[in-house]
Amino acid sequence: MAGLEGMEQPRGDGRATASRWSPTVEDEHALKALESYGNPAEAEVLLPSRPESAATARRLVQVVVLRHWNLTAGTTEDAVLLVSELVGNAVRHTGARVFGLRLRHRRGWIRVEVRDPSRGLPCLMPVQELDVSGRGLFLVDQLADRWGVDLLPRGKTTWFEMRVTDR
Fold it and tell me: pLDDT (tens digit, 9 = 90+) per residue, 14-42?
């Protein structure tokens, strides 16, 4: 899975604590990412193809889904997890210098798109309980209502959609 840099490490007593994403803790970083890169709900945002860009993509998704679209924390949490997986695949497997992030919202649905210049298709692989990698598309397949890949003349867009309850 991409972007484990935010996971909590074991405390001094040697026991690991459960790390759970919080919609309020990241607000400051999310707003800074929005200022720096732009709003992916208004136009595609280009991010450098580096592992640390997964954190930026998560922050952008967080601020748009939770604050701009006023959707639930649960929806936001799932979208943040899944964008991290798509970004991880784009960074790890395409050899690109940059990738594009785009968010769309229509009544009852959100769509998250990650565009890269590779025409290589992602592959949903069966996962085993002890697998330490290769679970990204499995998670997308399990949590998203729909997902797919659109081939482009120069690359592809990998996307997922989730049903949402608009407030």
Answer: 443 334 555 555 678 888 899 999 999 99
Judged by DSSP in three states, 135 sits in coil
What's the CATH code of the domain at 108? Answer: 3.30.565.10
What is the DSSP code string of 5-25?
GGSPPP-TTS--------TTT
Best CA proximity match to 124, nearest among 116, 111, 135:
135
Helices (H) and strands (E) in the chain, counts: 4, 5
86 is in which domain, residue-wise?
Answer: 22-163
> Distance between CA 49 and CA 24 in Å, rounded?
27
DSSP string computed for 62-105: HIIIIIIS---HHHHHHHHHHHHHHHHHHHHHS--SEEEEEEEE
DSSP 8-state code for residue 60? H
Q: How many domains does the chain have?
A: 1
